[in-house]
Amino acid sequence: MRARFYRLVRDLHLYLGLFSSPFVLVFAISVFFLVHTWLPKIGSETSTTRVVSALPLPGDLQTLSGRPLIDALKPMLEKAGVQGEIGFVQHLVQEEKLIIPVTIPGRATIVTISIAGRDATIVTRETGLADAMATLHRSPGEHAPAIRMNWFAMKAWRWLADTTAYLILFISVSGIYLWYVLRAERRVGFVLLFAGALSFFGLAYALSH
Question: How many domains does the chain fold into?
Answer without folding.
Answer: 2
